[in-house]
Design a protein that fits this description.
Protein name: NADH dehydrogenase [ubiquinone] iron-sulfur protein 3, mitochondrial
Family: Belongs to the complex I 30 kDa subunit family.
Strand content: 15-25%
CATH superfamily of the domain at 90-218: NADH:ubiquinone oxidoreductase Nqo5 subunit
Pfam families: Complex1_30kDa
Subcellular location: Mitochondrion
Catalytic activity: a ubiquinone + NADH + 5 H(+)(in) = a ubiquinol + NAD(+) + 4 H(+)(out)
Largest sheet: 5 strands, mixed
Length: about 300
């Protein structure tokens, strides 16, 4: 059986010259055409020899002999890789991030106030406003961090806090495939340092935060609005900014130009405040206490049957 299989594979190699010359009729083009066709013949023969080597390797493993003994191949040929099995590295990555966060806190204890791993398994660092430049420079230039990409700068507004604005820097390390989130805080009057000297992308990001929230960045090369129009009043992403704004823009048919004028409302704002448990979580939690209970059903009186 082995010799038969080898002969079926080696037959094209033995008859390669005859098949190629007969198929393409190279002889009619002369001696130079025959010489030029030699590389093609060599490639054809090498391909067949490669099949012979692969077949001989399979014959030594015994896979073909096991399958030939049965009329139908029950188990297909499978080639398993001998490389180590890839394991889930999520837990080890989180452990490394947590250790690195503690390392950052130990190196910069003056500025780092809190280090934690978020629910998305990313490093979260809360810092003092004075530590923006030192901490971000450390994360960018340290050999074991290399957060060389600034993905975004954003902010949130919580008016109930003493420092109502929280500025968030999202950093990415392509070297270690990790993300870090640096958070700091400020108010309406206190500026924070710009990081345009560290990341060029911070220019427009800080302009957007200034336009939407009114957070002032000191040492910014060109701190002006980027999304709203010239002369816009207020900062739209603040929680105390009215929904309709302070001014409206429209085209005046008489003046034949665009005019900006104060907002005129046909009616006052209506506040829809209902005492519904679905709009207030404490009431919803205590809904069982506030819900009136129905009186327990009493059994119907038994009818006395007349005496016989």
């Amino acid at each position: 059986l082995t010799s038969l299989v080898v002969w079926c594979v080696t037959r094209p190699c033995v008859c390669a010259n005859l098949e190629v010359f007969g198929r393409y009729n190279i002889t009619r083009f002369g001696f130079f055409a025959v010489c030029a066709g030699r590389p093609f013949l060599v490639c054809h023969i090498l391909m067949q020899m490669n099949q012979i080597l692969r077949l001989s390797k399979l014959l030594t493993t015994g896979i073909i002999q096991q399958n030939v003994t049965s009329k139908v191949c029950v188990t297909p040929l499978r080639f398993y890789s001998e490389s180590p099995v890839k394991t889930d590295i999520a837990d080890s990555k989180v452990e490394k991030l947590s250790k690195f966060g503690l390392y950052v806190a130990a190196c910069l204890p003056k500025y780092v106030q809190k280090v934690e791993i978020g629910h998305v398994k990313e490093l979260d660092i809360l810092i003092h406003p004075d530590g923006i430049i030192p901490v971000i420079s450390f994360l960018r230039n340290h050999q074991n961090a290399q957060f060389a990409s600034l993905v975004d700068i954003t902010a949130i507004d919580v008016p109930s806090r003493p420092f109502r604005f929280e500025v968030i820097y999202n950093l990415l390390s392509l070297r270690y495939n990790s993300r870090a989130r640096v958070r700091t805080y400020t108010d309406e009057l206190t500026p924070i340092s710009s990081i345009c000297d560290l990341y060029q992308a911070a220019n427009w990001f800080e302009r957007e935060v200034w336009d939407m929230y009114g957070v002032f960045f000191s040492d910014h090369p060109d701190l002006r609005r980027i999304l709203t129009d010239y002369g816009f009043q207020g900062h739209p992403q603040r929680k105390d900014f009215p929904l309709s704004g302070f001014t409206e823009m429209r085209y005046d048919e008489e003046l034949k130009r665009v005019v900006i004028e104060p907002v005129e409302l046909a009616q006052e704002f209506r506040k829809f405040e209902f005492n519904s448990p679905w709009e207030s979580f404490p009431k919803f939690r205590d809904s069982e206490k506030n819900t009136a209970k129905l009186a327990d059903a009493q059994p119907a009186p038994k009818k006395e049957l007349p005496a016989k």
